[in-house]
């Protein structure tokens, strides 16, 4: 345990140093940069409200916490996911694969794409004769891509302790109008002892830089009089830290319960979260997974707590949260997970409309 204490102290020092540096930089960096990488992947995780930093133990750990790759049960593991957000408008796709290098270390690769496709460009809908010509409509996509290359290793001197890191390459594209390339580093730790599962994930720990390139000729055609041309250049993503804890509880019969919580801490300025300050904003999440005989799972979660102004009053603000539900089946190495995330949005009439997101993921572990 002495070795683990040293790791904990070192992590705390690095965490405090990073917060101090980021507090100075907040005024010059944007919030929500590369936010597509914080939506989440995998039906299990999204069904539990994105609580996964201490739990991830398959190929999805390359995304959630690369240290968890050392806990995968099979020699090779692969995951595919398709998610439709905002009632199908936004497509979120994901693929991952992981395998061991030796008895102590594991490598993995993950691909993420979030995009809106087939956006109609109707600027040339009317031809030179003043007539509508539908054949002049063109279509384009806005999409964000990321590739994560992961490495994880068990710390031999401390049983249950693993560390991992990601090198990620980012490509963001806005049709023919603009694109950006970016690079960043993530780091994670997992520790399992006496039934407890603990995790710490530091995303963009070195800060992530996107270099934007603007197609001035294309943009110029879309500008209204007096509107300024967008500028290219670097976009900086500041670190965020996610601390997670979970515990497996055996219930009567073949049932188990796995409650878990995550605390996500952002350092890019004050956000609309449950705990909010100019230095750090903290967004708590909670989830639970009820399993039967390691075969069937029922999941639920809640997170994304935000204070939203009521349309009925100009001064009243109410707290809202985003719940999620999910089910999973695991059989002979095959895992099928479904999740549904529902967000209620109050409209001007005082009633609530529903925006549903459907997630389907398929995993397979072999050998």
Automatic annotation (TrEMBL):
Signal peptide from the UniProt entry: 1-25
Presence of the UniProt keyword Signal in the record: yes
Annotated keywords: Signal
Protein's recorded name: PorV/PorQ family protein
């Amino acid at each position: 345990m002495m070795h683990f204490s040293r790791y904990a102290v070192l992590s705390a020092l690095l965490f405090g140093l990073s917060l101090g540096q980021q507090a100075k930089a907040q005024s010059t960096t944007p919030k929500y940069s590369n936010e597509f990488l914080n939506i989440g992947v995998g039906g299990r995780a999204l069904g539990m409200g994105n609580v996964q930093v201490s739990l991830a133990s398959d190929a999805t750990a390359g995304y959630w916490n690369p240290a968890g790759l050392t806990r995968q049960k099979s020699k090779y593991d692969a995951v595919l996911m398709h998610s439709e957000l905002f009632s199908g408008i936004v497509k979120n796709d994901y693929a991952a694969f992981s395998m061991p290098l030796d008895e102590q270390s594991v490598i993995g690769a993950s691909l993420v794409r979030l995009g809106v496709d087939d956006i109609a460009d109707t600027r040339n809908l009317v031809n030179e004769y003043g007539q509508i010509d539908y054949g002049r409509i063109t279509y384009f996509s806005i999409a964000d891509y990321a590739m994560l290359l992961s490495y994880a290793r068990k710390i031999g001197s401390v049983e249950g302790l693993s560390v991992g890191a990601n090198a990620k390459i980012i490509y963001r594209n806005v049709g023919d109008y603009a694109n950006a390339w970016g690079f960043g580093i993530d780091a994670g730790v997992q520790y399992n002892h006496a039934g407890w599962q603990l995790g710490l994930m530091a995303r963009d720990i070195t800060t992530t830089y996107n270099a934007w390139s603007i197609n001035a000729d294309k943009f110029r055609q879309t500008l209204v009089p007096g509107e300024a041309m967008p500028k290219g250049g670097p976009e900086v993503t500041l670190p965020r830290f996610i601390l997670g804890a979970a515990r497996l509880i055996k219930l009567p019969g073949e049932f188990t319960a796995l409650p878990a919580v995550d605390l996500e801490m952002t350092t890019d300025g004050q956000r609309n979260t449950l705990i909010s300050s100019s230095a750090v904003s903290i967004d708590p999440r909670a989830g639970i997974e009820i399993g039967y005989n390691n075969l069937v799972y029922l999941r639920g979660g809640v997170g994304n707590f935000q204070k939203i102004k009521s349309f009925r009053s100009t001064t009243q603000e109410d707290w809202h949260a985003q719940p999620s539900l999910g089910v999973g089946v695991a059989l002979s190495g095959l895992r099928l997970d479904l999740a549904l995330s529902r967000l209620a949005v109050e409209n001007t009439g005082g009633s609530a409309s529903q925006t549903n997101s459907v997630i389907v993921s398929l995993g397979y572990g072999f050998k």
